[in-house]
Design goal:
heterodimer, A: mainly alpha, ABC transporter involved in vitamin B12 uptake, BtuC, 4 strands, globular, B: Rossmann fold, 3 domains
């Protein structure tokens, strides 16, 4: 087992890299509290939303599509949820969040599979629309969330020492992993992205599959927005801004192909955690924001470069 | 002898791919001012020798002279510089550019500023089409054109290079009869100007009309070069077919036990092709579809399999009319298609053997939305064993398998759906000869086990070995429906299998050529 793992080291570079970076930070930042349980749990808290969206985008990428609108949809959802809670309480907020995700996802899916606009363009346009709507309905102001129950369930709470966010991430990760690896839907997703013509000849309705992964992705983005809103007890259009890049980076770092047919949810989660780990370590190292950006970009390039197969 | 310097002189050309000898010491000589036909069956080496001549392939052995000058560098650029131009069967056009932009791609006209001058290109392209007396709009986007117009663009591209040697590979497959006629008029003009023209076609009557001499290849070797006056059509066919049969003649054909009627087509017409096709397929029977490229065989298969739904006509399965609009409908009706393009339509190359095998039966193997891993593995192992697929394991990517074994995976995938009707479109294309007879044998076994099989193949010897009945198609229509015995020559002794197959192949070839003629008459 261990030998096979090392023999395929390129394939498993994300896990190796995660461990190596963790050890380096643990040694270098020992005196700055890197290994302090609170710090480690904070990494999880900061990563959870990215991870939730990245789990879903693993399906999108595996089906050979892309979703650039996730960050903006998360931001829009924080606003719709906060506004609904103010009017109708926490349950109305949850309903508003789910409705936002479904509406955006179905619109993305419809444009991509029925009208035939590539998902890259559909979701690029949706990124702007979602942000614009969020700014418009909130008049660019933060909307406070006063329901403590909502905040506890969606992002703020702890069960003993365990943050609720970690549970969300773990549960969705398990569901995502089983769905991609073992479910008939997951097989169809991978087949659609791996060879669309062969999949169609095999009786798979690939348009349907693409529609579904785009809906899943938007719903996950909406959930991430609900978590942002709960954690920060407010809805603001800026939340989630730019997350789409971290989300795609997490999935690709984890070993999911940008071109479809190949994906792993566990890799994606580790990829998301690795990005959080790097961010945290670089801050503790005392790097300036500009330096952090450069260092993070460099580490990601290195990891993906090492994972490339040489012919 | 040396009064004229040959336009092309290839001597002792050999070329192997992997272990397969595609060309074995072939000599090929073309004179200036002649139309020289290059003939041979599938796998005879025609494409390979042309690709050696135009620099795509590097010869392993042998020398090439163009106009008396040795060609030492083997690249497409070097060949073009030496005056060789070629059209491509598999369409070398860029669909998003205009006709004129395609014709002059990499040789664009420039204006005074050194910028590309599309207007000049359009004028020059229009001149070429005027010479050909055909109407193609130089400003049209190639992707919007029909097959015939694309082919004319392809030909214009080859002609525009003012080549000393012009290679036309199957130029007439998509052309209307009147356009072929105009092409011939033009080729005669070029010939008069001293251009050497190499003409590849499967249509013997065309060859007889346009060519001065012909060279015939078979199994990578040179068979004969002779003036057309010494090569009547049946002699050509005899040389093309030769004594090959390579292991196919020992495939046991057995007696077909015809069962109930499985599939009936009644006046089935597709968007393009097929045209008004009716046929009946019985249980236990292998039905062959013979015809040239573009004859509508594959379209017919795609219509029945739901990839391109029929626009008219009725499909009945076991007597009951069915509606087939998408592949899922066909699968539900018990129809499976092993498609022509294995790499894109048949398999997902990067996925494992197991993933590919279960692709069409995911639902059957799933409980509560989860794929039953054990059932999937059992099914895969059973198919690997049944078809003797050579793979390191069921978890290896299909791309690591040989062509023949990849094809077995596709067949296994479809057998897993337990179809009554199996359609195989060119199942042996790109497969080594050993695996070929294995697949033909498998087809016979499947028929014997009670399935109805439709097989499409351009290799006539395979059709004749595998099939109980053969339909000859041309231009989307069925021209003949003949039992296999009709191709047997009673003059050949029954125990001389190789010779019998050869004689049958000649007859089938003649039927295909006849169907082409019938097509021209009905159009004319």
């Amino acid at each position: 087992m261990a030998n096979a793992f090392l023999a395929n080291w390129r394939q498993n570079i994300i896990y190796i890299g995660f461990v190596v970076i963790f050890i380096v930070f643990a040694l270098a930042l020992n005196d700055k509290g890197f290994l302090n349980p609170n710090n480690l749990l904070n990494i999880v808290r900061q990563t959870a939303m990215i991870a939730v969206m990245a789990i879903a985008i693993t399906f999108v990428l595996s089906a050979g599509e892309i979703d650039l609108s996730v960050g903006a949809v998360a931001g829009l959802t924080t606003v719709t949820v906060a506004m609904a809670i103010a009017v109708g309480g926490p349950l109305a907020g949850i309903a508003a969040g789910i409705a936002t995700g479904l509406a955006v996802g179905m619109f993305n899916g419809w444009l991509t599979t029925r009208i035939g606009i590539p998902s890259f363009l559909t979701t690029l346009a949706m990124m702007g629309i979602a942000k614009g709507v969020a700014m418009w309905i909130s008049a660019t102001a933060a909307v406070p969330i006063l329901s403590r129950n909502y905040s506890w369930v969606f992002g703020g709470g702890n069960i003993g020492p365990v943050p609720v966010l970690l549970l969300w991430m773990a549960i969705l990760g398990c569901i995502g992993h089983v769905a991609l690896r073992r479910s008939s839907f997951g097989r169809r997703v991978l087949a659609t992205g791996g060879g669309e013509t062969a999949a169609r000849y095999s009786g798979i309705e690939t348009g349907n599959i693409k529609f579904k992964v785009l809906v899943i992705s938007s719903c996950a983005a909406a959930l991430a927005g609900m978590l942002y809103a709960g954690r920060l007890q407010s809805g603001r259009f800026q939340l989630g801004e730019g997350d789409e890049l971290s989300v795609i980076a997490a999935a690709v770092l984890g070993g999911t192909s940008l071109f479809g047919g190949k994906g792993t949810v566990i890799g994606t989660i580790v990829g998301a955690l690795m990005i959080g780990l790097i961010n945290n370590g670089l801050i503790l190292l005392g790097l300036e924001f500009s330096q952090q950006l450069i260092a993070r970009g460099g580490i990601i390039i290195l990891a993906v470069a090492l994972s490339q197969k040489r012919s | 002898m040396n009064a004229t310097v040959a336009a092309v002189r290839m001597k002792g050309i050999s070329k192997a791919f992997g272990g397969v000898r595609a060309l074995d010491g072939v000599d090929f000589e073309v004179l200036p001012g002649e139309v020289h036909a290059l003939l041979g069956g599938n796998g005879a080496g025609k494409s390979t020798i042309l690709k050696v001549l135009n620099g795509v392939h590097h010869p392993d052995q042998g020398t090439i002279e163009v106009g008396g000058v040795p060609l030492t560098t083997h690249t497409p650029e070097a060949s073009r510089a030496a005056g060789i131009a070629m059209n491509y069967q598999e369409m070398s056009l860029i669909p998003t550019l205009t006709v004129a932009q395609n014709v002059f791609l990499t040789r664009e006209s420039r204006d005074g500023m050194g910028l590309i001058d599309d207007a000049a290109a359009e004028r020059r392209a229009a001149e070429i089409f005027a010479l050909l007396e055909v109407s193609v709009d130089p400003k049209a986007i190639v992707g919007d054109l029909g097959a015939g117009q694309k082919q004319l663009t392809e030909i214009a591209k080859a002609i525009s290079q003012d080549a000393k040697v012009l290679i036309l590979d199957e130029p007439s497959t998509a052309l209307a009869v009147s356009d072929v006629e105009r092409l011939f008029v033009f080729l005669r003009k070029l010939r008069a100007k001293g251009v050497a023209i190499i003409y590849v076609s499967h249509r013997m009557d065309e060859i007889a009309r346009i060519a001065d001499r012909a060279t015939i290849l078979r199994d990578g070797r040179h068979v004969i070069t002779a003036p057309l006056s010494e090569l009547p059509i049946d002699a050509m066919i005899e040389h093309i077919v030769g004594k090959r049969s390579k292991g196919l003649s020992d495939v046991e054909r057995g007696k077909a036990v015809r069962g109930e009627v499985l599939l009936e087509l009644d006046g089935v017409t597709g968007a393009h092709k097929p045209e008004n096709v009716s046929l009946t397929l019985h249980r236990g029977e292998v039905l062959g579809l013979a015809g040239l490229l573009g004859s509508g065989r594959s379209s017919l298969a795609r219509v029945v399999a739901g990839m391109e739904p029929a626009t008219r006509g009725e499909i009945r399965i076991k007597g009951r009319p069915v509606t087939i609009r998408k592949p899922g409908d066909a699968i539900a009706a018990g129809i499976a298609l092993v498609p022509e393009a294995r790499a894109t339509e048949g398999i997902i190359p990067a996925h494992s053997v197991a993933s590919n095998m279960i692709l069409a039966v995911i639902d059957r193997l799933s409980k509560a939305g989860l794929v039953d891993g054990k059932a999937a593995n059992d099914l895969t192992d059973a198919q690997i064993k049944r078809l003797s697929v050579k793979t390191a394991s069921r978890d290896h990517a299909v791309s690591t398998l040989s062509g023949g074994n990849q094809q077995k995976v596709v067949i296994g995938k479809w057998l897993a759906t337990d179809p009554d009707i199996l359609i195989l479109d060119e199942p042996t294309a790109g497969i080594d000869i050993g695996s070929k007879s294995e697949i033909i044998r498998l087809v016979r076994e499947l028929a014997a086990s009670g399935k109805g099989i439709i097989m499409i193949s351009s290799e006539l010897s395979e059709l004749l070995t595998a099939c109980d009945r053969i339909l000859v198609m041309s231009d989307g229509r069925v021209h003949q429906d003949l039992p296999r015995e009709a191709f047997d020559d009673p003059a050949v002794p029954a125990d001389d299998m190789a010779h019998r197959l050869q004689a049958a192949e000649q007859r089938l070839q003649i039927e295909i050529q006849r169907a082409l003629k019938a097509q021209e008459v009905s159009h004319g």
